[in-house]
Design goal:
Elements (H helix, E strand, L loop, with lengths): L17 H10 L3 H14 L3 E4 L5 H13 L11 H14 L3 H12 L11 H8 L3 H11 L12 H12 L4 H8 L1 H6 L2 H8 L3 H12 L21 E6 L2 E6 L6 E4 L9 H34 L1 H6 L9 H8 L3 H8 L3 E4 L2 E4 L7 E2 L2 E2 H14 L8 H10 L6 H10 L5 H4 L2
Parallel strand pairs: 2-5
Antiparallel strand pairs: 1-4, 2-3, 5-6, 7-8
Helix pairs in contact: 1-13, 4-5, 5-6, 5-7, 6-7, 8-9, 9-11, 11-12, 15-16, 18-19
Length: 418
C-alpha cells in the first residue's frame, strides 16, 4: 500500500525583475528609440519630466561639417555602382521618351557619391546637346526619385527638395536655406531678422533641417547609416580623437515633485520608478561611452582613412578589456550610430572579421573601388575580381567576392555592362 510523502527540493532559477529588464532595454536603444521610450514614461509618471534637447548649431555641426565646408566632395570609400544601379532603374520609370532618357543619362553620369550633381546644369546641357530648359525639365523629373535630395545642385538645393517633400518649405525655411553660412555660424538672431520672425521660429527650422540628409547618395554605401540623428559624435582635438554623446539628440530628463513629498503608496512608487529610470539612463550612457571609446581607440585608422582601414576586431576583445560580458557589448552597440568626419557609421560595422591579413571591410572597400574603376563596356566577373584583389594584397576566393558584392548591392557583371 503506497502512502503520501513530503519532500523538499531546492532549485535555482534566474528571474529578471522589472528594473533589470528596463536596464537591458535602455542599453539596446538608439537615441531615437530612447527618446520615444522616455516620452512614453513621462506621460504616465507625473514625477518624470522629459524635455526636447535644446537646438544649438554647434552641437549638430559635426554631422554636417563636410556638407557645409567641403561641398559635394566624394568620399574615397564610396562604392558608387549601387547608387548608379538605383538611379538607372528609376530613370527607366521617370522618363517618357528616348530623348529625355538620353538627357537623364548624361545627368546621371555627373552624379557624385553624395547624390549631388558634380557639374553646372548649363555644362551638362551642352554635353547632352540640348537646350538648358530641356535639361532643367528632365532634372526636375529626376529630383522626384527617392531618396529625396538626389540630383540636387548643391547643399541648399538638396535640403530644399527634402523640405518641399516634407511640406515644410515656408518663408522662414526659405531664408534659412538661402543663408546656410549663417546657419553654420549659429547666427540665429540675424536669421530671425532676415526672416522677420522670432528666434524660436528659426530654431524650429533648424530642428527640422537636422532631420534631413545632406548627402542622400551616401545611403547606398553600406558603411553609412541613414539620415537619423547619430548617438555619438567623434571630433579631432589637440590631444587626439574625442568621443562624446550627441546631446542634441538626447532629451533632458529630470525628476520633479509637483506636490511636494508624496504620501500615497502609488505616488511613492511612481517617484521611485522615476529615480530608478534616471539612474539607469546614466548607467546606459556611461556604458555606451566606455564601449565606444575603446572601439574607436582601436579603429583610429578608420577615422583617418575610412572603413577600408578597419583592423580585425571582435566584440569579445572589447568585453575582455572592459571587464564586461559579451552580451553587454552586443546590446550597447545595437542600432547605435556614430558621427565621424568621414560620415555617420554604425557602431556594429566597426567590428571586422579576420580574413588572412585583411579585414572584411577592407576587402569590401577594395572590391568597390575595383568595380567603380572598371570599364563599363567590359565589367569584371567575380573570378576576375578575385584575381585582381589578390594582386592588391587581398587574396580571397571567388565565392567570397560574390558574397561581398551582394552585400554591397552591386549587380553581376552582365547587369553592370553598359
Amino acid at each position: 500500500m503506497s502512502g503520501q510523502r513530503i519532500g523538499l527540493h531546492q532549485s535555482q532559477r534566474l528571474q529578471l525583475n522589472a528594473a533589470l529588464q528596463n536596464s537591458i532595454r535602455l542599453l539596446r536603444m538608439d537615441a531615437g528609440g530612447l527618446t520615444r521610450f522616455l516620452e512614453e514614461q513621462a506621460e504616465t509618471n507625473p514625477y518624470l519630466r522629459v524635455e526636447a534637447p535644446p537646438v544649438e548649431p554647434g552641437q549638430w555641426l559635426p554631422r554636417w561639417s563636410q556638407a557645409f565646408s567641403a561641398g559635394s566632395a566624394p568620399d574615397a570609400a564610396a562604392p558608387g555602382p549601387s547608387l548608379m544601379s538605383h538611379v538607372l532603374a528609376e530613370i527607366e520609370m521617370l522618363t517618357r521618351s528616348p530623348r529625355e532618357r538620353q538627357i537623364a543619362l548624361v545627368l546621371a553620369e555627373a552624379l557624385e557619391p553624395s547624390g549631388w550633381l558634380g557639374a553646372p546644369l548649363d555644362d551638362l546641357a551642352r554635353r547632352a546637346g540640348c537646350a538648358a530648359g530641356d535639361a532643367a525639365a528632365v532634372l526636375a523629373r529626376l529630383q522626384r526619385m527617392e531618396p529625396a535630395g538626389l540630383f540636387a545642385q548643391g547643399l541648399s538645393d538638396c535640403l530644399r527638395i527634402q523640405a518641399e517633400e516634407a511640406g515644410v518649405l515656408d518663408g522662414v525655411m526659405e531664408v534659412c536655406l538661402d543663408n546656410l553660412p549663417l546657419l553654420a555660424e549659429g547666427a540665429i538672431a540675424r536669421l530671425a531678422r532676415l526672416a522677420a520672425c522670432n528666434e524660436a521660429d528659426v530654431l524650429r527650422c533648424i530642428r527640422v533641417i537636422r532631420s534631413f540628409d545632406p548627402k542622400p547618395g551616401a545611403q547606398f554605401d553600406p558603411g553609412v547609416v541613414d539620415a537619423r540623428e547619430p548617438d555619438l559624435v567623434v571630433t579631432r582635438t589637440a590631444e587626439g580623437w574625442d568621443v562624446q554623446l550627441n546631446r542634441s539628440a538626447l532629451p533632458a530628463v529630470a525628476v520633479v515633485r509637483p506636490g511636494g513629498r508624496p504620501t500615497r503608496p502609488e505616488d511613492r512608487a511612481r517617484l521611485a520608478a522615476a529615480l530608478d529610470l534616471t539612474r539607469m539612463l546614466e548607467r546606459r550612457n556611461l556604458t555606451l561611452l566606455r564601449v565606444a571609446r575603446e572601439v574607436l581607440s582601436r579603429q583610429s585608422a578608420a577615422l583617418e582613412a575610412g572603413l577600408g582601414a578597419l583592423r580585425p576586431l571582435r566584440q569579445s576583445d572589447i568585453a575582455e578589456t572592459l571587464g564586461m560580458n559579451d552580451s553587454t557589448i552586443s546590446r550597447a552597440i545595437a542600432g547605435v550610430a556614430v558621427a565621424t568626419p568621414l560620415g555617420t557609421w554604425r557602431m556594429a560595422d566597426l567590428f571586422a572579421t579576420q580574413l588572412g591579413d585583411s579585414s572584411g571591410p577592407a576587402i569590401r572597400s577594395a572590391l568597390a573601388r575595383l568595380i567603380a574603376a572598371e570599364n563599363p563596356n567590359r565589367p569584371l566577373s567575380d573570378r576576375a575580381l578575385a584575381e585582381a584583389l589578390g594582386l592588391v594584397g587581398h587574396p580571397v576566393a571567388r565565392r567570397t567576392v560574390t558574397k561581398y558584392r551582394e552585400m554591397l548591392r552591386i549587380p553581376i557583371a552582365g547587369q553592370r555592362r553598359r
